[in-house]
Each structure stands twice: as structure tokens, then as C-alpha cells.
Amino acid sequence: MKYYKIVPRLKNIIGLEFFVFISFLAICELINILIVNLVPNTSNTFWAFVYGILEIGGSAVLVGIWLIIWYVLTKKLMKNDNETESIEEE
Amino acid sequence: MIFPFIIYLLAFVLPALISLAIFPIFIRKMLSIGKYGIDIHKKEQPKVAEMGGIVTLSAIIISSVILILLIQDQSIKLEIMIFTITLTIAGIIGIVDDIRPLGAITKPILLLFAALPIIISGYFTPQPVLPFVGKTRLTIVYYLLLPFVISVTSNAVNMIDVYNGSMASTTIIILICIFISNGIINGFQFTTLSTTNIYILIMIAAAFSFWIFNRYPAKVFAGDTGSLIFGASLGAIAVLGKLEIVVIIAMIPLIMNSFGIISSVKGLKERREIKVRPTSMTEDWKLQATRDSQAPITLAGLVLQKGPLREDDVVKAFNILVIISGFLSIITAILIWVTETFLVN
């Protein structure tokens, strides 16, 4: 089968790829706006450590949410395609 | 002026020539001593030589040694050595796994050791550059994550090595996109030596010459030896070449595949431990999704949701997905370049 004939059946997965990419960029921008720019720079070692933990923790939460949405969408993609198939069979 | 160009040329030509010369002999030898696997996706169930990664590893080691002897810069020599040692450790783990299968948890744990040469050498910058954000201050987190880099990329590539040519072709596309991205971020250095260019050229040549023998219908399987080497090379290039984000984006379909498998089977499991397969063969020897809720979520399963496909068409589908993620990785490289050049001082 030619490559261009395979593309239409991949549109949902390609959509998921773009979602993963765009949401990754969105997370980068969110980290920049909400975390990097808001957390003040300080020369105090204790507060620098606390702010560092906040930055990493906040980023980790965002990445965690991103991964969960990614997983849920993949599961949904499989279910949707299964349902489409069974409707077509009927 | 001409010297870097000769080194780049040798970095590409040497592994290709060595692999192309050794593979036919290796395949005959492996078949004659009974070291073969059965290609279960073909009606004829042909015998295919196993552990082709040994040839790839040998070609990489020999080429690296020749390049090290030719290059005068001590720092570049050392970097090429670190890259080769990393791949050799991953390759040895793969050989052990091919001879005596390791557990699903033992293998990634052992692969943590493959990152040791990079960690000990200190040839990395713990400040990955994110688009819009610029250099991040992840010093401690970076050190914590570093041992997992080789393990994660190796396992991701290992999990895509399920059909004839799937691992080799996707790796080639990823490497080409990383090469372009590296040029965008660090400049296309053809008159000065860039170690990242050398690694990528070595790996493209090694993957391409392996693909010639592994493409549909395969004459040789990579085994874990091959897939772990190619995976480790992507991890090593990401860290040594400071291209972490670009490599992650380029590998999205592979990450999707391994993330889907690990999350759906609830942990690390070997193929033989997974009872329900994600795909099966139709009567006319096409691949179809099993549609069993117990089956792991795989990229092949997703591709086959809309109906059965021939094995080589599934690999083409994988290639299309990697071409798109590769294109996105090049966009990421452009964004990183823009961020570093214009947005962040």
C-alpha cells in the first residue's frame, strides 16, 4: 500500500501526536508564566531551596496532569474506534 | 577546512561498509549454528538469523576506534569514547538478554549502568533548554533523571522492534530529524568538528545498513542487542548533544507505544508475560487488532483499529507517525533557537 493511502486511517493518532506536542509547548509556557516568572530570586539559601522545590513540584504536577490526559485520550481513541467499527458491522 | 568533512564522511561510510560486509557472513553463520528465530508474521514461517545487533555494535566500535585514532583533539576523542562505551554496555546487556532472557525489571535496572560513563565523564550540561522558557535550572533533578535516560530510550526502541524493519526505519527517521534540529540549534558545523554530528552520522549509517537486511521480508532480527544499542544511542545523543527536548518530541510515537504498554499492563512486563496479545493474524496473513480489553495498548493496536493491514504497511504507518513527530521536533528546535537567540539573554 502506498504511504498516502495509509495516512487517512492514522488521522486520530496524528491528532493525538499534535495534541501531545502542542500541550507540551503550552506546559512550557505555563511553567514560564506561572512558575519561573512568579517565583522570586533570592540569595537566602533556605528560601532559594523552598522556591526551587515549589518550581519543580509545580512543574511535576503540570507534567503529571499532561500524562494522565494523554493516557485517557489514548484509551478513548481505542474505544471510539471499536465503537465505530461495531456500528459499521451492524 | 577539509579535515572535518573527511571525518564526517568516514563517520558515515565506515560503519555502513563494515556492516554491509559482515551481515551476509553473519546471517549464514547464525542460520548454520541454529541461532535463528521464526518470523511468525509470515505464512511460510521463515527462519531468520537472530542477534543482528552484534554486527551493528562491532561496526560502531571499529569505526569509533578508527575515528579516535584519526582525530587529534583530546576532548573529542574522549567524547566519542564515552558514547561508544555507553552503547557497548547497552549492547552487552542486550547480548545477555538474547542468550538468557532477563526479567522485565532486571533489564531496565541493568540499563541504568549504561549511563555511568556519561555521568562519570561530566560531559553534559544539566540545563535543558525549553521552548519559551530557555535554560532551566534543573541541576539536582537532572542528576536524578540522568541514569534513567539510557534505560527509557532503550526500552522505548526495544518495544517498537516488533515488525520487520520497524525499529530500523523509525530510528533512521528520528536520527535524521535530530541531525537537522542539531544544525538549527547549534549551527550546521561542516568546517569544524561537532561530536554530535559524528554520533548521529555513525548511527544513521549503522541503522541504514541494518535496515537493508531487516526490512520486509527480514533476513536478520536485531534482537535486544540491536534495539538496546539504537535506543541507548538516542539517549546518549540527547544528553551529550544537549538535545533532550528535541529527542523527546521526535520519539513521541515510540513513547506513546511504551507508555501505552506500561500503563495498560500496570507495570514493566516482558512480552512472554503478557497473556493477551494486542494483534493477531487474519486468514490471509494480515495483522489485526485483537480488540481484547485485557490486551496492552500498543501503537500497532491503534494503527490496526480501522482494520487489518499487511506487516509492511503497519511499518509504513509507524514511519508516517515518526515523520510527523520528527517534523514537530524540528519545529521545537526552531522555537528553542528563537528562545535562545531573541527571547532569553
TrEMBL record, chain A:
Transmembrane segments annotated in the record for this chain: 12-36, 48-73
Record bears the keyword Membrane: yes
Keywords, in A-Z order: Membrane, Transmembrane, Transmembrane helix
Record's protein name: Uncharacterized protein
Species of origin: Candidatus Heimdallarchaeum aukensis
From TrEMBL, chain B:
Localization annotation: Cell membrane
Gene Ontology molecular function terms on file: phosphotransferase activity, for other substituted phosphate groups
GO annotation, biological process: cell wall macromolecule biosynthetic process; cell wall organization
Membrane spanning stretches: 6-27, 48-72, 78-96, 108-125, 140-160, 172-190, 196-213, 220-239, 245-265, 317-338
One GO location term (cellular component): plasma membrane
Claim: ATP-binding is one of the keywords in the record: no
Pfam name, any one: Glycos_transf_4
Coiled coil start-end: none
Keywords for the protein's UniProt record, in alphabetical order: Cell membrane, Membrane, Transferase, Transmembrane, Transmembrane helix
Top-level lineage group: Archaea
Membrane topology: Multi-pass membrane protein
PANTHER family found in the cross-reference section: PHOSPHO-N-ACETYLMURAMOYL-PENTAPEPTIDE-TRANSFERASE, UNDECAPRENYL-PHOSPHATE ALPHA-N-ACETYLGLUCOSAMINYL 1-PHOSPHATE TRANSFERASE
UniProt protein name: UDP-N-acetylglucosamine--dolichyl-phosphate N-acetylglucosaminephosphotransferase
